[in-house]
C-alpha cells in the first residue's frame, strides 16, 4: 500500500506543479476579504449592531439617573455605540450565558444609598471576552457614562469635586486581539482553507475531465490508498501558500503568532486533512475545472464567514452558532485564533476531535462517491 | 492424460440490473479461450460497457457468475485487476504527466517489480513509437499518440487479458494501423483480447470471433465469416429502380430470392438489397425477373456482405445510426 500511496502523492504533486491555478484564489480571496473587512471596521464601525443589556436592581433616583445616562448617550463617532436594552436580572443572565448578549451593565442594589452616604458606589459590566476591540468599546461606554454622571449630567447643579462613583481601570480579562489582528490571523487560515479545498477540487475535476480517474480507480490499488494519497499530497501543496500569506500579513498588519508554532502547525495540518475530502467532493460533483474552482471558492468563503471569519462565532446569533458547529472551518478558525493569540494548549480537544471526525467522515463519503462514479462512467 | 485448461473468461447467466430498474445485462453467457480475440458488437446502450465493468469487477452482478482465469471476479478483485489490461474509450491519461511518468505511475499502481520498470517502460515507449516524446507532457500529444500510449500502458503490467473499448476511436489511419498491428502482436504473444467496437472493419480485421449483443442479450455469435453466411449470405446484390410501388414480400415472390431491404432515396429512386448465395448466377436471373415483373432496373451492383450488413439484417439498423 505504501508504494501505491507514494505513487499517488508523486503524481498529484507533479500535476499541481504543472497546473498551479489553484494558488490564485488562495491569495486573492483572503486579501479581498481582509480589505473589505478593514473598510467595514474603520468606516462603518463594528459595534453598533451588538446589543448591550442593562439591569437596574436599585430603585433610587440616582440609579435611574445613571441608567438614563447609559440609555440616552449619543456618540459623535461610529466606534463605541451599542443598542441598549433593559432586562431583568435573570433574563440578562440567561441571555448572557447563551451568548445572545455580548455584555450587560448591572446597577446593583444600594447604588443610590452609597452615593447618598458618600461611599463608593459600583456598577458592574459583564462582558464576553471575545475580542479586544469589542471589550474596549463596552468599557469606553461605561467610562463615558460615569464621567457624565460625575459631571452631574443628570442634574443642572453638578459637583465634580466629589465624584460619587468611579471606574477602576483594572480589568480581569486576558489579552484578546483587535479586529484587524483577528482578521489578519484569519486571512492566513483562509488562504490555507481555500488552497486545500480549491487545490483538491481542481485536481479531482481535472482527473474527471480527462477520465484519468478511472485508470487509477480501476487499478488493483486499494481505494483507501488512493484517497489517502490525494489527502497527503495536498499537505505540502497547501502549506506552500504560507510562504506568501505569512509575510504579507506580517508586513501589512504587523501580526505575528503568539502561540506555540508546533500546535499551530498541527492545527493547519488537521484543517487540511478535514477539508481536502470536501474539495474532492466538489471535484466529483462538478467534474469540470472551472466549476470546481468556483464551487470551492464559494464553499470556502461561505463556510469561512459562517464559521467565525468575519466576527468571532461567540458574538453571532445563536441560530448561526448551532449551524456553524457543523462546519469544519468553524473549528479550524476557533483553534487557530485561540492558539495564534494565546500561548495555550488548553481547550483544543473538542476542536481537534471535531476536525478528525470531519476527516474520517469526509473520507468515507469520498470513497462512496468515487465508487458510484466509476460504476456510472 | 488430457489437461483441460480453464477458459480465460467464463461468463455464466450474467444479469445486471441498474438501480433495481434497468436490466443492462440479461442472462448473458459466453467464454473466451486463452489467446483468442473476441469482438463485442452492439449499438450504444446494448450492454457492452456494463459487461466490461462486470468483467473488471467495477460492478457486482445482480446474478450469475464472471470468472477470469478460473477465479471468480468479485472474490478476487485485486488479483483479477492485475491480470487485466484495460484501455478505456476515453484514453484516461493524466494530461499533466509525461509519457514516461504516465507509465511509471501505472507500473507502481499495478505492482510491476521495481527492477523491471525501466526496461519495460522503454520497451513500451518503443512499441508505441513514442521514445522521442517520452519527456513531453501528454497534453501535447495528438489523439493517435494518446491512444498508442494508452494501449501500451494496458500491457505494461504483463496482463493476460486485454480489454479494449473503442481502441481506434478518433485516430488517424497511421495510428490505427499501428494499433491493429500491436493487437495482432499481442495475440501472437498468447494474450487474450476482448474488444468493444462500433467499427465493423475493425471487428472484421481483428476478431477471431464476434458476439453481437443488444438490450443486454446475445443476438448472435460466431466468426465474421460464419455470421455473414448465416445472416446475409455469400453476396449482396443492390438494385436501383425508379417508381417502385410494391413491398419486399411481393418482390421476393417475383424474383425467387430473399430481399434484405428496401430504401427509398431522396430522388425517389429505390435501393433494393437482395441476399444471394450464388451471386454470379443469380445476378442475370434477377435482372430478367424484375424486367418481366414490370420493374426495369436502372442500376445494379454486387458485393460481398460486410458485418454492417449482418448487423442491419439482425437489428434493422446500422450500428452507427
Summarize the structure.
The complex is a heterodimer of chains A (377) and B (321). Chain A has helices at residues 2-18, 23-44, 61-72, 89-98, 111-117, 132-150, 179-209, 212-217, 223-239, 242-253, 261-286, 289-309, 318-325, 328-341, 349-376, and strands at residues 51-56, 83-86, 103-107, 124-127. Chain A has 377 residues and is mostly helical.
How does this model look, in words?
- The complex is a heterodimer of chains A (377) and B (321).
- Chain A has two domains: 2-40 and 178-376, no CATH class; 47-150, 3-Layer(aba) Sandwich (abc type-2 transporter like fold), CATH 3.40.1710.10.
- Helices cover 66% and strands 5% of the residues of chain A.
- Chain A is built from 15 helices and four strands.
- Chain A has a four-stranded mixed β-sheet with strand order 2-1-3-4, with helices on both faces.
- In chain A, helix 3 links the parallel strand 1 and strand 2 (83-86).
- The longest helix of chain A is centred in the middle third of the chain and has 31 residues, at 179-209.
- With 321 residues, chain B is α/β, with parallel strands linked by helices.
- Chain B is 36% helix and 28% strand.
- In chain B, strand 1 (9-18) and strand 2 (22-32) form a beta hairpin.
- Chain B is elongated and about 80 Å long.
- Chains A and B meet through helix 1 and helix 8 of A and helix 2 and helix 3 of B.
Amino acid at each position: 500500500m505504501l508504494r501505491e500511496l507514494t505513487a499517488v502523492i508523486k503524481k498529484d504533486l507533479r500535476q499541481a506543479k504543472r497546473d498551479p491555478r489553484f494558488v490564485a484564489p488562495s491569495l486573492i480571496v483572503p486579501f479581498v476579504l481582509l480589505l473589505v473587512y478593514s473598510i467595514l471596521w474603520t468606516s462603518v464601525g463594528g459595534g453598533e449592531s451588538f446589543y448591550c443589556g442593562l439591569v437596574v436592581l436599585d430603585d433610587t433616583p440616582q440609579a435611574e439617573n445613571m441608567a438614563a445616562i447609559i440609555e440616552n448617550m449619543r456618540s459623535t463617532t461610529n466606534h463605541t455605540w451599542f443598542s441598549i436594552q433593559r432586562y431583568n436580572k435573570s433574563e440578562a443572565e440567561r441571555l448572557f450565558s447563551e451568548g445572545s448578549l455580548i455584555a450587560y451593565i448591572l446597577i446593583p442594589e444600594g447604588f443610590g444609598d452609597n452615593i447618598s452616604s458618600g461611599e463608593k458606589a459600583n456598577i458592574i459590566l459583564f462582558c464576553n471576552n471575545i475580542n479586544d476591540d469589542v471589550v474596549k468599546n463596552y468599557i469606553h461606554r461605561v467610562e463615558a457614562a460615569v464621567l457624565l454622571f460625575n459631571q452631574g449630567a443628570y442634574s443642572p447643579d453638578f459637583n465634580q469635586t466629589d465624584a460619587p462613583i468611579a471606574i477602576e481601570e483594572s480589568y480581569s480579562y486576558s489579552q484578546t486581539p483587535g479586529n484587524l489582528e483577528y482578521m489578519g490571523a484569519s486571512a492566513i487560515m483562509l488562504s490555507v482553507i481555500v488552497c486545500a479545498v480549491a487545490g483538491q477540487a481542481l485536481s479531482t475535476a481535472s482527473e474527471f475531465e480527462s477520465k484519468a480517474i478511472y485508470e487509477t480507480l480501476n487499478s488493483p490499488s486499494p481505494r483507501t490508498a488512493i484517497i489517502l494519497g490525494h489527502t497527503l499530497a495536498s499537505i505540502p501543496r497547501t502549506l506552500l501558500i504560507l510562504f506568501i500569506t505569512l509575510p504579507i500579513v506580517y508586513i501589512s498588519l504587523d501580526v505575528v503568532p503568539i502561540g506555540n508554532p508546533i500546535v499551530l502547525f498541527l492545527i493547519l495540518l488537521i484543517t487540511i486533512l478535514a477539508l481536502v475530502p470536501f474539495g474532492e467532493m466538489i471535484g466529483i460533483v462538478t467534474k469540470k475545472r472551472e466549476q470546481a474552482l468556483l464551487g470551492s471558492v464559494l464553499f470556502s468563503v461561505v463556510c469561512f464567514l459562517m464559521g467565525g471569519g468575519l466576527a468571532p462565532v461567540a458574538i453571532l446569533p445563536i441560530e448561526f452558532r448551532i449551524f456553524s458547529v457543523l462546519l469544519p472551518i468553524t473549528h479550524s478558525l476557533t483553534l487557530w485564533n485561540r492558539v495564534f493569540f494565546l500561548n495555550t494548549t488548553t481547550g483544543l480537544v473538542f476542536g481537534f476531535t471535531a476536525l478528525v471526525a470531519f476527516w474520517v467522515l469526509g473520507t468515507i463519503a469520498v470513497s462512496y462517491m468515487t465508487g458510484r462514479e466509476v460504476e456510472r462512467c | 492424460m488430457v489437461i483441460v485448461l480453464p477458459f480465460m473468461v467464463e461468463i455464466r447467466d450474467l444479469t445486471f440490473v441498474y438501480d433495481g430498474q434497468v436490466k443492462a445485462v440479461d442472462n448473458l453467457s459466453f467464454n473466451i479461450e486463452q489467446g483468442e480475440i473476441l469482438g463485442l458488437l452492439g449499438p450504444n446502450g446494448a450492454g457492452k460497457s456494463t459487461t466490461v465493468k462486470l468483467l473488471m469487477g467495477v460492478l457486482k452482478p445482480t446474478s450469475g457468475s464472471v470468472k477470469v482465469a478460473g477465479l471468480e471476479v468479485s472474490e478476487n478483485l485485486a488479483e483479477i485487476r492485475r491480470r487485466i489490461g484495460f484501455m478505456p474509450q476515453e484514453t484516461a491519461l493524466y494530461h499533466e504527466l509525461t509519457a514516461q511518468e504516465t507509465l511509471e505511475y501505472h507500473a507502481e499502481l499495478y505492482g510491476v517489480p521495481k527492477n523491471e520498470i525501466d526496461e519495460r517502460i522503454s520497451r513500451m515507449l518503443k512499441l508505441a513509437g513514442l521514445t522521442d516524446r517520452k519527456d513531453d507532457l501528454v497534453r501535447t500529444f495528438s489523439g493517435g499518440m494518446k491512444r498508442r500510449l494508452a494501449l501500451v500502458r494496458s500491457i505494461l503490467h504483463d496482463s493476460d487479458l486485454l480489454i479494449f473499448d473503442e481502441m481506434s476511436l478518433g485516430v488517424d489511419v497511421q495510428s490505427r494501423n499501428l494499433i491493429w498491428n500491436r493487437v495482432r502482436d499481442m495475440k501472437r504473444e498468447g494474450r487474450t483480447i476482448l474488444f468493444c467496437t462500433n467499427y465493423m472493419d475493425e471487428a472484421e480485421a481483428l476478431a477471431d470471433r464476434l458476439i453481437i449483443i443488444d438490450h443486454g442479450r446475445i443476438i448472435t455469435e460466431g466468426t465474421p465469416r460464419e455470421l455473414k453466411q448465416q445472416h446475409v449470405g455469400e453476396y449482396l446484390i443492390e438494385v436501383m429502380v425508379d417508381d417502385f410501388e410494391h413491398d419486399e414480400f411481393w418482390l421476393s415472390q417475383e424474383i425467387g430470392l430473399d430481399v434484405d431491404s428496401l430504401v427509398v432515396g431522396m430522388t425517389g429512386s429505390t435501393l433494393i438489397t437482395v441476399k444471394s448465395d450464388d451471386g454470379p448466377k443469380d445476378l442475370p436471373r434477377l435482372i430478367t425477373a424484375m424486367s418481366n415483373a414490370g420493374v426495369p432496373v436502372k442500376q445494379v451492383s454486387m458485393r460481398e456482405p460486410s458485418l454492417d450488413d449482418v448487423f442491419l439484417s439482425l437489428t434493422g439498423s446500422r450500428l452507427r445510426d
